[in-house]
Amino acid sequence: MRVSVVENILGANEQIAAANRELFSEKGVFAVNVMAGPGAGKTSLIERTIEAVREQVRIAVIDGDLASTIDADRIARLGIPAVQINTGGACHLDANMVRSALDQLPLGETDLLFLENVGNLVCPTGFALGANLKMMISSTAEGDDKPYKYPGMFSAVDVLVLNKVDLLPLLDFDVGYFRRGVEALNPDLAFFAVSCKTGEGIYAWTEWLLAERARRK
Amino acid sequence: MRVSVVENILGANEQIAAANRELFSEKGVFAVNVMAGPGAGKTSLIERTIEAVREQVRIAVIDGDLASTIDADRIARLGIPAVQINTGGACHLDANMVRSALDQLPLGETDLLFLENVGNLVCPTGFALGANLKMMISSTAEGDDKPYKYPGMFSAVDVLVLNKVDLLPLLDFDVGYFRRGVEALNPDLAFFAVSCKTGEGIYAWTEWLLAERARRK
Questions:
Q1: Which DSSP helix (H) or strand (E) runs through A133?
Q2: How deeply is B54 buried, as exposed, middle or buried, from its count of CB atoms within 10 A (0-12, 13-18, 19+)?
């Protein structure tokens, strides 16, 4: 009985995610589900990406957090359409939350849509949003053992961005150990090392993202 | 119907948590539920605390992670009894996981027990473990806006340790903004700023912990 309840919930989410995906396809929107632990730099990477590609594509952002409008306010300050979802207690976005937010965005004038998930390395992977691309951001400050401890997230995504590489000289972070852990889980994963603070590595990431959008849509 | 299923699960957890609490009381164990986002420094703070107080109290550790034995191995290398719980997919420890692990520890010879939760700033607050003290660790590298985005965790704990203060000169982290967010949620919270890397602040934290143990037990 309990299992069937859970199956119904996930089944409903999958259906709404499929409807979101269809809407994205119809409108020519390339949607990216951005996942990471708290404070790894999801909003910062979205800001850097906006700066880099806003002349080439029209961007919109949906920000998910338990509370506050901090992230959507940051994006709106750049003149980019942004909607904040407050999940209350929920530890992840789901397809229906995204669907509700889509009504408030000019989808017909959007080429690239970021769905910034709640900061959490576990729960978001269980809930499809209908995105075209699933990405995760790791922070060097989180330590090099994260692929070994959170294999589900590292296995579930198409691209991994390692942020805060400007801190590497101060940290005991073994990049080889980190990457071996990632490759064992997900050998085809695209990988970029960046610093949202200094801008290092951002160009390689945004060029790949634009190419991937052109290839997948 | 769905709500009643959830209530049953939480009810069962509360009952087992109460039994754990009773067992801790009977054995003279002071148990600490250690919560934080991924990579904030839970294991590092436990290691530093072991170094500082192992002459005064007998310590044991239960480490929760989705996968791997990395954390329990680190603790065991210090000669401290440690049990690793692998939750599989679960995003938090629960009282029954802890109970199962307790059988493998010498509780009669333990004064201080750390229950290191899964790295997650949302889900662990919903599941009591029977601990005497609930603590959370924030990392400066996560950013100063975390109290505003994850109010549930900051409201639920007795003590907050801000780790990685050695990185502050490199970060845009406003300690006043962070602390104002915390104080609005939880004005009675004990607060310590430390660096597990340099050892800064560790003495104040461990002195408080030992005093709190003496006061509460």
A1: strand A133-139
A2: middle
DSSP string, B10-68: HHHHHHHHHHHHHHHHHHT-EEEEEEESTTSSHHHHHHHHHHHHTTTS-EEEEEEESS-
Provide ipTM, 2 decimals: 0.92
> CA–CA separation, A39 vs B208, rounded Å?
28
- Token code pair at residue B20: 């754990």
**Closest in A118, A139, A151 to B66, CB measured:** A151
Residue B160 φ then ψ, to 5°: -125, 130
Cβ within 8 Å of A, B 171-210: none
B117: pLDDT strictly greater than 90: yes
CB A68 within 8 A of CB B100: no
Global confidence as pTM: 0.94
Q: Which residues are CB-neighbours of B24 under 8 A, at least 6 positions away? A: B30, B31, B107, B113, B130, B131, B132
Using CB atoms, pick whichever of A39, A70, A126 lies closest to residue B37.
Answer: A39
CA distance, residue A170 to nearest chain B CA (Å): 8
- CA dist A132 and A20 (Å) reads 10
Per-residue pLDDT at A216: 84
What is the pLDDT, as a whole number, of residue A1? 44
Q: How far apart are CA B72 and CA A144, in angstroms?
A: 16
Number of H helices and number of E strands within chain A?
Answer: 8, 7
Average pLDDT, chain B: 95
> CB under 8 Å to B13, separation ≥6 — which residues?
B94, B95, B96, B127, B128
Q: Which residues of A touch B63 (CB under 8 A)?
A: none
SS3 sequence, A76-104? HCCCCCEEEEECCCCCCCCHHHHHHHHCC
| Rama region for B193: left / alpha / beta (φ>0; ψ in -120 to 50; rest) | beta
pLDDT in tens, A89-124: 999 999 999 999 999 999 999 999 999 999 999 999
Spatial distance between the Cα atoms of B27 and A41, rounded to a whole number of angstroms: 44
Q: What is the pLDDT of residues A1-14, one digit of tens each?
A: 455 555 666 789 99
SS3 track for B132-188: CEEEEEEEHHHCCCHHHHCHHHHHHCCEEEEECHHHHHHCCCCHHHHHHHHHHHCCC
